[in-house]
């Protein structure tokens, strides 16, 4: 904060305190010619009179003491912008002390799980409860409380993983984040196949994962196959099964993160997508990230009797 803002705050505070003190003095003072307290001309039932008496002296004195206390409080604790108080106290320092104490308690709570592999954590009910709680506080905003995602946010409760579903791959996703980019291919495809090129590719993509015998008899899909093999194959592969190293999704399953309508697919191919999974290493730390990653991984991997987990992939 600049000194200009400091002086602004000081002046505003001083004016408020002086204004309150002046108001007390002005309203408590009786002046020549003022009517007596009982001369209000307000009567009820002939013998009930409204008085206009000044506040008791002890009450007014209490207000002055409160103003003096407020001035002392500001000087002691520092209420003048960024100018420190006499005591040296600051809210930032207090926050740092409380945060350090809370971090120490958390560190003690999470110490038993430090460096534990995800399958072992997935077999520990207490670790899973901690992981579920961390997920609810940190990840549910995007992926939902049940981890089933939404349009644009992947479902974490199934066995489809764009960046790989092995324990260390899931942990890396949580720790360091991911950035998935689908380039804009509309202009390129139209240059190769005309104004309907994107529609051709959509028609062919819809056949992936199904029998390819029908492609030859489907004009749109046949045109799309040629365009797909010229552009899309680099990331999604010749058979459309994708590439987890790039985060390129498998196009042969029935899961579409941005929706499977023609309009959604057109938007994806023509204008691209840019999905970002934030890194949580700094926010959660390694151990808490490990716990939440283990909980997410456990949603599609049930632990066996030995404490390892049997995967669905």
From TrEMBL:
<comment type="pathway">
    <text>Energy metabolism; oxidative phosphorylation.</text>
</comment>
<keyword id="KW-0472">Membrane</keyword>
<dbReference type="InterPro" id="IPR038414">
    <property type="entry name" value="CcoP_N_sf"/>
</dbReference>
<feature type="transmembrane region" description="Helical">
    <location>
        <begin position="58"/>
        <end position="77"/>
    </location>
</feature>
<feature type="transmembrane region" description="Helical">
    <location>
        <begin position="6"/>
        <end position="26"/>
    </location>
</feature>
<feature type="binding site" description="axial binding residue">
    <location>
        <position position="143"/>
    </location>
    <ligand>
        <name>heme c 1</name>
    </ligand>
</feature>
<feature type="binding site" description="covalent">
    <location>
        <position position="139"/>
    </location>
    <ligand>
        <name>heme c 1</name>
    </ligand>
</feature>
<keyword id="KW-0679">Respiratory chain</keyword>
<keyword id="KW-0813">Transport</keyword>
<dbReference type="InterPro" id="IPR004678">
    <property type="entry name" value="Cyt_c_oxidase_cbb3_su3"/>
</dbReference>
<keyword id="KW-0406">Ion transport</keyword>
<feature type="domain" description="Cytochrome c">
    <location>
        <begin position="126"/>
        <end position="209"/>
    </location>
</feature>
<feature type="binding site" description="axial binding residue">
    <location>
        <position position="182"/>
    </location>
    <ligand>
        <name>heme c 2</name>
    </ligand>
</feature>
<dbReference type="GO" id="GO:0006119">
    <property type="term" value="P:oxidative phosphorylation"/>
</dbReference>
<feature type="binding site" description="covalent">
    <location>
        <position position="142"/>
    </location>
    <ligand>
        <name>heme c 1</name>
    </ligand>
</feature>
<keyword id="KW-0249">Electron transport</keyword>
<dbReference type="InterPro" id="IPR009056">
    <property type="entry name" value="Cyt_c-like_dom"/>
</dbReference>
<dbReference type="Pfam" id="PF14715">
    <property type="entry name" value="FixP_N"/>
</dbReference>
<dbReference type="GO" id="GO:0046872">
    <property type="term" value="F:metal ion binding"/>
</dbReference>
<protein>
    <recommendedName>
        <fullName>Cbb3-type cytochrome c oxidase subunit</fullName>
    </recommendedName>
</protein>
<keyword id="KW-0997">Cell inner membrane</keyword>
<feature type="domain" description="Cytochrome c">
    <location>
        <begin position="219"/>
        <end position="300"/>
    </location>
</feature>
<keyword id="KW-0479">Metal-binding</keyword>
<dbReference type="InterPro" id="IPR036909">
    <property type="entry name" value="Cyt_c-like_dom_sf"/>
</dbReference>
<dbReference type="InterPro" id="IPR050597">
    <property type="entry name" value="Cytochrome_c_Oxidase_Subunit"/>
</dbReference>
<comment type="subunit">
    <text>Component of the cbb3-type cytochrome c oxidase.</text>
</comment>
<dbReference type="GO" id="GO:0005886">
    <property type="term" value="C:plasma membrane"/>
</dbReference>
<comment type="similarity">
    <text>Belongs to the CcoP / FixP family.</text>
</comment>
<keyword id="KW-0349">Heme</keyword>
<feature type="binding site" description="covalent">
    <location>
        <position position="232"/>
    </location>
    <ligand>
        <name>heme c 2</name>
    </ligand>
</feature>
<feature type="binding site" description="axial binding residue">
    <location>
        <position position="277"/>
    </location>
    <ligand>
        <name>heme c 1</name>
    </ligand>
</feature>
<dbReference type="GO" id="GO:0016491">
    <property type="term" value="F:oxidoreductase activity"/>
</dbReference>
<feature type="binding site" description="covalent">
    <location>
        <position position="235"/>
    </location>
    <ligand>
        <name>heme c 2</name>
    </ligand>
</feature>
<keyword id="KW-0408">Iron</keyword>
<keyword id="KW-1133">Transmembrane helix</keyword>
<feature type="binding site" description="axial binding residue">
    <location>
        <position position="236"/>
    </location>
    <ligand>
        <name>heme c 2</name>
    </ligand>
</feature>
<dbReference type="GO" id="GO:0009055">
    <property type="term" value="F:electron transfer activity"/>
</dbReference>
<keyword id="KW-0677">Repeat</keyword>
<keyword id="KW-0375">Hydrogen ion transport</keyword>
<dbReference type="Pfam" id="PF13442">
    <property type="entry name" value="Cytochrome_CBB3"/>
</dbReference>
<keyword id="KW-1003">Cell membrane</keyword>
<keyword id="KW-0560">Oxidoreductase</keyword>
């Amino acid at each position: 904060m600049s000194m200009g803002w400091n002086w602004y705050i000081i002046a505003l505070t001083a004016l408020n305190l002086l204004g309150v003190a002046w108001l007390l003095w002005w309203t408590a003072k009786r002046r020549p010619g003022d009517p007596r307290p009982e001369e209000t001309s307000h009567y009820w039932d002939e013998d009930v009179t409204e008085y206009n008496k000044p506040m008791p002296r002890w009450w007014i004195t209490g207000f002055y003491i409160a103003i003096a206390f407020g001035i002392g409080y500001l000087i002691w604790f520092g209420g003048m912008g960024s100018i420190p108080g006499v005591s040296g106290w600051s809210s930032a320092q207090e926050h740092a002390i409380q945060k350090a104490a809370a971090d120490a308690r958390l560190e003690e709570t999470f110490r038993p799980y430090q460096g534990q592999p995800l399958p072992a954590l997935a077999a520990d009910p207490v670790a899973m409860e901690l992981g579920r709680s961390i997920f609810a506080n940190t990840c549910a905003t995007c992926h939902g409380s049940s981890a089933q995602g939404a349009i644009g946010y992947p479902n974490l409760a199934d066995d489809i993983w764009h960046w790989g579903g092995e324990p260390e791959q899931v942990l890396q996703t949580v720790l360091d984040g991911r950035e998935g980019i689908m380039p804009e291919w509309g202009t390129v495809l139209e240059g190769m196949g005309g104004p309907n090129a994107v529609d051709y590719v959509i028609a062919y993509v819809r056949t992936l994962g199904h029998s390819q015998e029908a492609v030859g008899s489907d004009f749109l899909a046949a045109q799309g196959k040629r365009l797909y093999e010229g552009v899309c194959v680099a990331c999604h592969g010749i058979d459309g099964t994708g590439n987890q190293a790039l985060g390129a999704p498998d196009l042969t399953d029935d899961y579409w993160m941005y929706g499977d309508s023609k309009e959604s697919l057109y938007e994806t191919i023509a204008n691209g997508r840019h999905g970002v999974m934030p890194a949580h290493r700094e926010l959660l730390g390694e151990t808490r990230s490990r716990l939440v990653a283990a909980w997410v991984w456990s949603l599609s991997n049930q632990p066996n009797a030995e404490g390892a987990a049997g995967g669905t992939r």
